[in-house]
Amino acid sequence: MIPLQIDSAAPLFIVLNVGSGSNDTVATREIIEEVLTQASREHLVRVVDAPAKLHEIARQTVEQARSRGGVVVVAGGDGTINAVAQATLGSGCPFGVLPQGTFNYFSRAHGIPSDTADATRVLLTARAHPVQVGLVNDRVFLVNASLGLYPQLLEDREAYKRQFGRNQLVAFWSGLVTLLREHRQLRLLIEHRGETRDLRTPTLFVGNNRLQMEQLGFPEAPLLEQGLLVAITLRPVATLTMLGLLARGAFGQLGDADSISSFAFKHITATPAMRYGTRRVKVAIDGEIIWLQAPIEFRVASEPLYLLKPEPDPSARDPA
Fold this sequence. Notes:
This protein is of the alpha+beta class. 32% of the residues lie in helices and 31% in strands. The protein folds into two domains: 12-131, Rossmann fold, CATH 3.40.50.10330; 139-300, Tumour Suppressor Smad4, CATH 2.60.200.40.
C-alpha cells in the first residue's frame, strides 16, 4: 500500500498520558507545544490524568480529529498507544506517536525517535505509512498478545513495581520469582487452516512486532511485514529449563530452543479444552491485562493504521 501525504496544515489532536514512562508530564507537554507552536501548527493536547479516562478521551479525540480532517497523536507507552490505536482504527484518521514508555517496541520498530522534540518534529513532515494491526477477539494489538504464563509475568511485575519502584532490576527480579513458581499448564484446542491441534503449554504468545521477534531470535520475524502474525508456544518443561529459556531470550536465541515452537499465520482460534464457550480467559495485550470470553481468536486486521513515521534513510542501506 502507498503512503499517504498529510496536509501540512492538518491539526494535531494529541492524547498525553500522565502515567506513561518516567518523564515529567508538564515538561513533556511544554516540549510538544513549543515545537508545534514554533512551526505554527494547529494542535490540541488532552491530558489523561487517570487510567479509567483513557479510552473515553481517546474516543473523543478521534471524533474531533475526524471532524476536522486532523491527525490523532498519542504520547505514551505501548499500552497507551494500544488504547488510542483501538479508537483510531477504521476512523480514516492518520496516527502519530510520541513515545514515552519504557520499552517502546512499537515506536522503535518504525524508526520513531525516543526524544520527544525529535518525535514531534517527525509529525510535521512525515507521510502516513500503512502498518499492520493484530486483533484478538476484535481488540487491537500492535506488539503482542498472549495467554498463560506471559500475562502472569506482567501482572506480577506490576505488583512488584508498585511495592518496590519502577526499574529494570525490579522487573527482572519479579520475572525470576514468577518463573520459579509452579506454572499452570494450559490445554488449548488450536484451530489453524481447517485443522485442530490439542496442545498443552504454559503460554501462547502471538507477536506483531518485528523488532521484538528479532531480539528474541525468531526466524519468522520478517513475515510480520508480509501480512502475517507469529504464534509461539512452549512445551511443558522443568523450572531449570525455564530459566535456561529466559537466558536464551536475553541473548536472542529463544527461537532455536528445542522446547519452543513457532509458526506464522493470518488467523487462528484458541479454545480452552474444557467448558467450551463459557470460560473467561486472562489475556495480555501490549502489556495490559484484560479478560476475554473464549474462544480466543487471533487474526490480522483487514485494514491498517496509517502511521506517521520517518522515511527510510537511503544512506543506511547496504551498498550494492
